[in-house]
């Protein structure tokens, strides 16, 4: 049986490889080509060079969405990872009902982004009304913090699971040795647990950075880019350019924005992976 598997492994690989090529590779290559074209549909594309990229970079809504998204990535990444780590540290102690608490914290991750967006839109708008503050659709700052709150509520439980797995993989001998040497709980956390936790930190940072950059459905449901495109993240700005503006030129510009967006996320993610992996400690 083992010899047959070794001999015919390409047959088992073929369905997954075919799905990946058809569902990702071919559309990706086609999308890159269309970013250099003016088109209404895929079949009537005409090559126009780098014009779409020039117009995309000159679009003030795109540049605003970029910096707005960067600020959102920094704040949400720090908040989600600090929150997830703190909850993980609490729920790895001897605590009655800790498995139930872990389940409760993880459950928001199972709810769809559109549903979460509309739920939090109602909750936050009610809260803002009670405080006599502008609603989410009227204040980009309120929309920003609304998105941060929504992301934290959804993602902290997911990162908590990864941090719990990392904390449980740390050998007890290391923490016991630190206690014998007279280290305080804070010193044990900083000098022992965090260095050993770097693989989990690498994964969580990668997930939160990429998720924060490509956030779309929550942005659409919570603020819809209002007021006047001031609360648009990059993914929603690309969507609006492609589908919300009339004229064949905007589809090519939207596709060019998508390519630029892809390059930005890939570059930032690779830099983050390279930096954090250098700090990982072999157990």
Protein architecture, described:
With 283 residues, the chain is mainly alpha-helical. It has helices spanning 2-7, 9-34, 51-58, 60-91, 98-106, 113-130, 140-168, 172-180, 185-196, 198-213, 217-222, 234-243, 249-278, and strands spanning 37-38, 46-47. A hairpin with a 7-residue loop joins strand 1 (37-38) and strand 2. The mean pLDDT is 88.
Strand content: under 5%
The value of Rg in angstroms is: 23 Å
Question: How many beta-strand elements?
Answer: 2
Give me the secondary-structure category: mainly alpha
Strand order of the largest sheet: 1-2
Shape: globular
Query: What about the largest sheet?
Result: 2 strands, antiparallel
- Tell me the series of helices and strands, N- to C-terminal: HHEEHHHHHHHHHHH
Averaged pLDDT, please?
88
> Poorly predicted ranges (pLDDT <50, ≥5 residues)?
none
* Helix run count: 13
CA-to-CA gap between the ends?
Answer: 36 Å
Which range best describes the helical content: under 10%, 10-25%, 25-40%, 40-55%, 55-70% or over 70%?
Answer: over 70%
